[in-house]
Amino acid sequence: MSSRETHDMKLPPIQSTAGAVPVRNEKGELSMEKVKVKRYVSGKRPDYAPMESSDEEEEDFQFDVEERLARHRQIAEPEVVAESSEDSDEGTWHPEREEKYTDSEDEAEPRLKPVFIRKKDRVTVAEREAEELRQKELEVEAKKQVEERRRYTLKIVEEEAKKEFEENRRTLAALEGLDTDGENEEEEYEGWKVRELKRIKRDREAREVMEKEKAEIERFHNLTEEERRAELRNSGKQVTNKASKGKYKFLQKYYHRGAFFMDEEEHVYKRDFSAPTLEDHFNKTILPKVMQVKNFGRSGRTKYTHLVDQDTTSFDSAWAQESAQNSKFFKQKAAGVRDVFDRPTVKKRKT
C-alpha cells in the first residue's frame, strides 16, 4: 500500500449533503432534511462569519492553514524507490508538483473582488511616468513665465521712471533758459493797456450793432402792411458778397459756393465760381451726339442732354387714353386743363 493510500484512509470521509442534512426524529431514526444553501462568493464575508475575530481564533485559523499545507506537501512527496531514481529526479522539473503547491498557496491567501476598469481609465506605468514628466515640464514652464513677467514689469517700471526723470529735467532746463533780465515792465504794461482798450471798443461796437438791429426789427413790426411793401420796394434787398454771374459752357459742371458765412463781406466769396475747370475747358459740342451726355460710359450717366428737344410723354399710360371717364375727369376735376381763370374762393363745408 502506498503512502497516498495510507493518508487517504486516515482522513475523514467527505460528507456532501448538497442542500440536505441528517436529522434524528423522535423515534431515533435518521432522515435527510433540505436546507437553504447560500453560494460562496470569493472575497465576500459569509453572513455567519463574525465581523471581528479574537486573537485565539486567528491563531487557530493560522494553525489550520499550516496543517492543511503540510498535509498537501506530505501527499505531494514522491515515493522513494531507489537512490538512482532520487538522483535522476533532482535534475528534472515536475509541473504536477508545482501546480499542487501553487494551488495550496493560493487557497491560503485572501482573494480580492475583481473590479472592471474602462479602457480610457486604465493608466499604465509608462503613461503615469509620462504624465509626471509632463507635469514637471508644465511647472518649469510656469515658473519661467512668472520670471519673464516679473522682468518685463521691472523693465516697464524702469522705463517709466527714466521718462519721468527726463521730462522733469527738460522742464527745469526750460525754466532756467527763460531770460527775464532784459524785460521792461513799463512797455509790457503799456501794451496790455492798448489790447484791453481795443477789446472794450470791439465789445461796445458789437453791442451797439445788436441794439440797432433790435430797434429796426421793432420799427418794422409796428408798420402796416402797405408801409412794409412800400419800404421793401424802395429799399430793395441787400445782398452780401454778391458775385458776378458768369456764363457756363456746354455740359459744364456746376459748383455752388455755399450758403454759410455769407453775412459779412469777404473778397474770397466774390470770386467767379462759374469758371471752367479740368475737362470743362474742352469744347464738348464737337463730340458725337451719343457722347454729348454727362458721365458718358459710367453707371451714373444721364439719359438726355436736354429735355427741351425730348418728348417724354408716355402714350401707353392710362392718363393718355381717350375715354369717356378721362374726358369727364379732365373737364370737371383736373387742375390746369380747364379754361377757368377766376380766383379760387373758400367753399363752405356742408354740415
Description:
The protein is mainly α. Among the domains are: 1-9 and 58-78 and 94-107, no CATH class; 125-172; 201-238; 241-296, no CATH class. It is 46% helix and 3% strand. It has 8 helices and 2 strands. It has helices at residues 3-10, 55-76, 83-90, 95-108, 125-177, 185-222, 225-235, 324-332, and strands spanning 20-24, 30-34. Helix 2 (55-76) runs antiparallel to helix 4 (95-108). The longest helix is centred in the middle third of the chain and has 53 residues, at 125-177. The model is unreliable at 5-9, 11-17, 74-78 and 84-88 (pLDDT under 50).
Structure summary:
InterPro entries: MFAP1, MFAP1_C. It contains eight helices and two strands. The longest helix is centred in the middle third of the chain and has 53 residues, at 125-177.
Integer average pLDDT: 76
Q: How many beta-strand elements?
A: 2
Strand arrangement, major sheet: 1-2
Choose one word for the global shape: elongated
Class computed from helices, strands and strand pairing: mainly alpha
* Low-pLDDT residue intervals, each spanning 5 or more residues: 5-9, 11-17, 74-78, 84-88
Largest sheet: 2 strands, antiparallel
Q: Work out the helicity level.
A: 40-55%
Structure characteristics:
single chain, 351 residues, mainly alpha, two-stranded antiparallel ribbon, 2 strands, 46% helix, 3% strand, elongated, MFAP1, Microfibrillar-associated protein 1, MFAP1_C, coiled coil
